[in-house]
Amino acid sequence: MPPKRKASGAIRGASKAGRTSGVSTPGAETPRSIGSSDEYSDQEIASESEVENLDKAHGKFSLAGYQRKPKAVGYDAVSHLFGKKDFSWLKLKPDHENRPLWIDPEKGLIILESFNPLAPQAQDFLITIAEPLSRPTFLHEYMLTTHSLYAAVSVGLNPKDIINALNRFLKTPLPDGVRSFIEGCTESYGKIKLVLKNTKYLVETTDPNMLQMLLKDPEISQFRVHGSEGTSLAPTMGGLVIPGTKNAAGVREATEIKSGDKQQGQEGEKPEEGNIYAALNEEDDDDDKEAVHSFEIKDEGVETVQKRCLELGFPVLEEYDFRNDEVNANLEIDLRPATQIRPYQEKSLSKMFGNGRAKSGIIVLPCGAGKTLVGITAACTVKKGIIVLCTSSMSVVQWRQEFLKWSNINPDDIAVFTSDNKSMFSGNTGIVVTTYSMVTQTRERSHDAKKMMDFLSGREWGLMLLDEVHVVPAQIFRKVTTRIKTHSKLGLTATLLREDDKISDLNFLIGPKLYEANWMELSEQGHIAKVQCAEVWCSMPTEFYEEYLKAPGRKKQLLYVMNPTKFQACQYLINYHESRGDKIIVFSDDVWALKRYAEKLGKAMIYGATAQHERIRILENFQHNPAINTLFLSKIGDTSLDLPEATCLIQISSHYGSRRQEAQRLGRILRAKRRNDEGFNAFFYSLVSKDTQEMFYSSKRQAFLVDQGYAFKVITQLQDIDKTPDLAFASPSERRELLQDVLVSQEDEEVIDDLWHQGSQGRAQRRKPKVRRTAGTLNELSGGQDMAYVEQNKSMNKTLKKNKKESHAFFKKLQRERDRRKQQ
Ligand SMILES: Nc1ncnc2c1ncn2[C@@H]1O[C@H](COP(=O)(O)OP(=O)(O)OP(=O)(O)O)[C@@H](O)[C@H]1O
C-alpha cells in the first residue's frame, strides 16, 4: 500500500555514492519519529517550482533563490542529518521500488541504483543525456549539464523524449526546475552553428532575430568580418551508417529511448523502428527547407565567440556535413571487411555522427579499450583529409601502422610529419600523422619542415584526431586550432582529468565530452582486464621517520620513497608475482630512487635518458624473454606503452595527488593479454610510507579509480616477509647506510622525468641529466664494499645489451622486420 504521508523520502547526502551509504530507504517501513506525520502541509514544503534558478552558462543549477521551508527538515528522526540534502519533500511514486533513479532537484544530479532490474536500460539512457561522475558497485552518479543535453539532442532526442524517459525511470516526479532546465537547454541548442567554408569560419543561424542579436553583441561583433553576411539554403541530411556497424548512427540509441517511452504509454505495444527512424528524418527534412543566415568571423575570434554564445545561453554547434562537402576531395578509405567494432566503440561514434554530420568532441574510453580504432573508424566515416596529432613520434609510427592494419588506406596516402620524417601523401588528399610539438613549435624550422607546415595550414581538413587530449596544455590546442583549419575534431583520452581544473577549456577548444565508457562494464565483458587494487602501508624505521619530520620538501619525498620497509615490500611482491608467472612493471617518478631500486634488485629499467635503441631492446626482452620479468619504469612509461604481457604493477613513487597518473598507470595492465583466462586478475599495488604525506596523496590519487568502481584493499602486513631470501636492508647497518645515502644525495640531481619532454622521443634521447651526481655515498667515500655490489647490479641493462649479439631467432626476425619497415 502506498504510504499516506506527503514526503516519504528521497536522496539524502548521497553525493559520494559507493563510498558512503547516504541513501535512505524510503517507504512505509521507514521508522519515523512519533507525531511527525502531520506536522507539515503542502504550503510548508518547498514547492518544486521554486527550484528554477538555473545557471545555464555553467551547465549547473544554482541554489540562488531556493528557500526550503524550515518545517520540511526534521520531520523524522534522521532528516536533520541530511541538512540541505534532505529532499524528502519530493513525493515518492507508489511503485518507486521498481524504478531505478533518484534525483537531486537543485543540481540535476541523478543517482542510479545499479542493482535495480531496470538499471541497464536506465544506464543506457543516462549515458545519452548526462555526464557520468562516479560508477562504483551499487550507486552510480550522473549530472545533467548543458553539454550532455546538447549531445542528447544531437542523437535525435527532443526535450519531450528526455523528460518522458526520465519520468519513467524516476522514483519521484520530475522536479519542475529540472524540467525547465532540460527544456531551456535543449531548445536553445543548434540555433547557432559554426561552419568552416573555404578556410573561413562562418557563424550560421536560421533565425533572423538571432542573427541580429549576434551582430549587435559587442564581444562577437569585434571579430566579425564586415561585408561577409549572406543567406543560403540548408543542405539535405539522411541516415548514415558508420563503417564496422550495421545501424544508422545514433538511430538505434534514439530509437531505444523513444521506444521505451512508447512502451510506457501503451503497455505491450512494440514500437516500430522504421516509423521512428522516419520520424527522425522527417524532422530533418523540415530543417532542410530553411534559409540559413551567416557572417564570417576572424580565425582568432573563434574561441571568444564560442564562449560568448554559451554565456548567452546558445551553445555553438560545430558540425561538419561531410557528405555534402563537394569542395574537399574524397579519401579512398574504408575499414577492412573483417573489422568489427565493439558495441561501446559503436556507441561512442554514434554520439559523434548521431545526425549524419560529424560533431566535434571528446570520446573517453579506458586505456586499452581501443581508442585508436575509434579514431580510425571516424576517419573512415568522414572520408576526407585527416590529420592525426599524437604526443610522441613513437605514437606517430603506431598510428600509421594501425591505420594500415584496420583500414584499406593506400600506404602512399598516409604520410608522417616528425623531426626525422617529412613525407607527403601522393594524391590530392590523404592522412597526415604528426605530433603536437611539430605543429606548434615556434623555433626556426628547416626548409622541409616549413614547406610541410605551410602545406598543413594552407588547406582544409575534414577531421582532426587529437590523441591523449588530457596531457596537452590548453595553449597548445589553441595554437593547433588556429594553425590548422579543420571541419571537425575528435579528442581521445582515457582520463578527462586535469588537476589544474583547465579541463573545461577543452569544451571550447575541441568540443564537449561525447561519450564516456564504464570501466567496470568493459572489464566484466572481457574487453579490459579485471584488476585487484591494493595499497600497501609500509611503516618507516624510527631513524628514517625522525629525519623525515625535519627534512625539507624534496628530501621528505625521497625519504618516504626510499623507506627500507617499502623497498622490502617491493622486493617481496616482485618475488611473489614472478613466482606466479606474472610480468611486473615497477613505477617510480623519482629517477634517483628508480635507479637505486633497479640496481639493487638487479632489474632492467627505462627512464628519460635511456636511449631509444636500448628502450626497444629492454621492452622486447620484457615481452619475450622468460628471464626478464620485471621492468622499472619512470614517468615516461605512464602512457602510450603497449605492454600486453604486463600483469602486475607496483608503484613506489608517484606525482603527488595526480588522479590522472594513477589511472594512466593502471591502464598499463588493463590490456593484459591473459585477461580472458579463467579466473585471471591483474594486480595494482601502491606502496605507501605510513604516517607521511604520501598517504594523503595516495587517497587523493585513487579518487578517479574509486569513481570508476575500483576498490582499494589496504595491506598492512605482508606474510612471512622476513623469510624473503636476501631481504634488502635487513640489518640496522644497511639501513643506516641507506639513510646516509639519501641524506647526502644532491638536491638538484635529475629527479623526475618530464612527460612533456618525452613527448618527442628525439628530444628525450638527446636530453642529458641536468646535473651529474658527483657526491658519493658515505660508503663510497670510505671505500665502502657496497660499491662493487652496485656496479655489478647496475648492469642489468648492460647485460641485456651484451646478450644482443647472441640474440634469439625471434629477436633476429623482429629486427629484420623492423629494418624492412624502415626501408619502406
Ligand atoms: N574492435 C576491436 N576488435 C579487435 N581488437 C580491438 C578492437 N578494438 C581495439 N582492439 C585492440 O585492443 C588493443 C588496445 O587498443 P588501443 O591501443 O587502441 O587502446 P587505447 O585505448 O588507445 O589504449 P591507451 O590509452 O593505453 O593508448 C589493441 O591491441 C587493439 O588492436
Written overview of the protein:
38% of the residues lie in helices and 16% in strands. With 824 residues, it is α/β, with parallel strands linked by helices. It has 4 domains: 89-188, no CATH class; 191-236 and 290-315, no CATH class; 322-525, Rossmann fold (3-Layer(aba) Sandwich); 529-731, P-loop containing nucleotide triphosphate hydrolases (Rossmann fold). The chain starts with 53 loop residues before the first strand and ends with a helix. Residues 1-74, 248-254, 260-288, 748-794 and 804-808 have low confidence and may be disordered. The site of adenosine-5'-triphosphate (ATP) has 16 residues, from helix 11. Residues 340-342, 345, 365, 367-373, 494, 640, 667, 671 line the site of adenosine-5'-triphosphate (ATP). Belongs to the helicase family. RAD25/XPB subfamily.
Comma- or semicolon-separated keywords:
Rossmann fold, alpha/beta, 4 domains, binds adenosine-5'-triphosphate, eight-stranded mixed sheet, 38% helix, 824 residues, globular
The assigned CATH architecture of the largest domain is 3-Layer(aba) Sandwich
Q: How many domains?
A: 4
| Adjacency order of strands in the biggest sheet | 16-15-17-14-18-19-13-20
Bound molecules: adenosine-5'-triphosphate
| CATH fold call of the largest domain | Rossmann fold
Radius of gyration (CA) equals 29 Å
Tell me the number of strands: 27
Largest sheet, if any?
8 strands, mixed
* Uncertain runs: 1-74, 248-254, 260-288, 748-794, 804-808
Measured between the Cα atoms of the first and last residue, the distance is 76 Å
CATH superfamily of the largest domain: P-loop containing nucleotide triphosphate hydrolases
Average predicted local confidence, pLDDT = 75
Amount of helix: 25-40%
The fraction of residues in strands falls at 15-25%
